[in-house]
Give the backbone structure.
Amino acid sequence: MTASVALHPHRHPYQFGAGIGLLALSIPLMLVLLRQDVSATLASTWLPHWHIAADLITVLVALLIFITGYRAILSPRKGAVVWLGVGFLGVALLGFLNVASHADLAEDLEPAARQASLGFGLAARLVAAVVLLVYAALPAVPDVSRTRKRMAVGIVLAGVLLPGYLVLTQSALPPVLLDGQDRPTALYWSLQVAIVILHLSTLFVFWQRRSMLEQECLMALIFAAALSAVAGLFFSLSIGLSHTSLHSAGNAYQVAAYLYLFHATFNEALSRPMQRLEMLYQRENATLTAAPDGVIWVDQEGTIVLANPAMQVLSAYLPKELIGQNVSIFLPPHLRERHAQSMRDFFHAPHSRAMGIMDLRLYRRDGSLQPVDISLGYWEVDGKPHAIAYLRDLTERKKLEESLRYQATHDELTGLPNRWLFQLQLRQALSRAERSHHRVAVLFMDLDHFKTINDTFGHAVGDALLVQASRRIHSQLRTSDTLARMGGDEFSILLPDLNHADEAVSVALKILACLQDAFDLPDQQVYSGASIGLAYYPDDARDSDTLLRYADMAMYQAKQAGRGDYACYSLDMDRRTHEDMLLHSRLKTALSEQLLSLHFQPQVNLRDGRLEGAEALLR
């Protein structure tokens, strides 16, 4: 699953056409309004009312730009957007002061009031031009602190309202019109031209940074700057009260420019961040949905507030069924109180817990227990603590671990315990026997003629013989006895909890008897048999290694006695074994040190005294 929301600026279908149309209309409109007769006709009808309405609309749109820019969220250029919004607060305030000082083109205004009105309007347009240019040039500033935003608003309020109050109450504004004339001063003309130049510069900056600003409704920003430049041109040509039609046309273009700017600001401050939030939500939702692990969010009371689809596989509950349930639903009843205390401890001292620390059992809907691993996280929402738990199904891992454990402790061919497991169980049996004062017998056995059968008929036949022999032997044992394959054709048998040694001898005889019958193997029928050695705890030894060694020693004694029989360990076996080992060691030493010499003893015929041969002796 992938997020279906793409981050792109909103484009009104008529945005481009309307902007091009307004720009194309500006030149013929300017030529028409420059005619004195047309301007006079328009001025005498609806232009004064339109002028007041346009100023009010400009103030309203500037306020909207301030509100949206100031409240910008998650924008990569949040600092620039906030700057734009705070700057247009000043534009709105100056526009309001313009309206408050009466319509700047009314016929009955005093010269000072007329200058104040024109001055506020000019200042509003100049501030807007500067703010827009700085916005276009600012780099990406991802965040602005709340304190800085409030300080900026305070500076703007103080910088606009205080001078505005002085102007309105004391007429302390430098003259922008010549006294008693309708022609602007050089300052007024210079500022109007500067405003146009600033907007043209903004257009250039937008074009230069078009790749960086393409997501910020670049088209709307370009039209805002272009229409503002056209509005400035209309204001520049409006050189007196006889040309109020040009001034009103400038107001119309200024309103259109601000509307385009509001469109871009709304997109960057709210619309695109909301798209980003929607995309993040869908991405997180897709991640939760596709996650193979179960995920639940729990509040401080243990109430489940979110569960992903994987929880259905783990618990057999639908995610919507889990919402509102207490997390103790996943625990057997006898563990719920203990878990409630653990949960209280967790929220009292929150800490993350990674997976692999503790394996738990999840109580499923059907009452079965599911092995899981859990990791915990902590976070707060609106000051309320929450825990997030990731639950991983350990069923397959447990199966793998069990398989590996089985392979490490059992013979692959016969499925019997191997030497390691046999020795472990033998040590455990000896510990129990020490407490219960029972005997323990160890039988060590070797199949007779196995090597010959294996070499003659192949390994497949040899393996089949081992499997059948292990089954026959196992059939003669108790459930408490242990049969293990020690390697090759050697087997060991553990007989715990014996009262008499004769019980082990009886088992050995039954095993020998069951192995005397023919073995029906693939395409062959063979005879084998076995030789068995027995050793007892505590009669012969008290530790596992010695018991195994003595049983092995007794087994070799049975083989030397002719195979197909058993032998019990005795001290003579140990003595003879030591003597044989000593003799073997002394012979090897004599050979290595060249201490042996060859002697020939002649054999003479006593009848005629002739030499018949010689007996060679190594001494």
About this structure: The first strand starts at residue 294 and ends at 299.
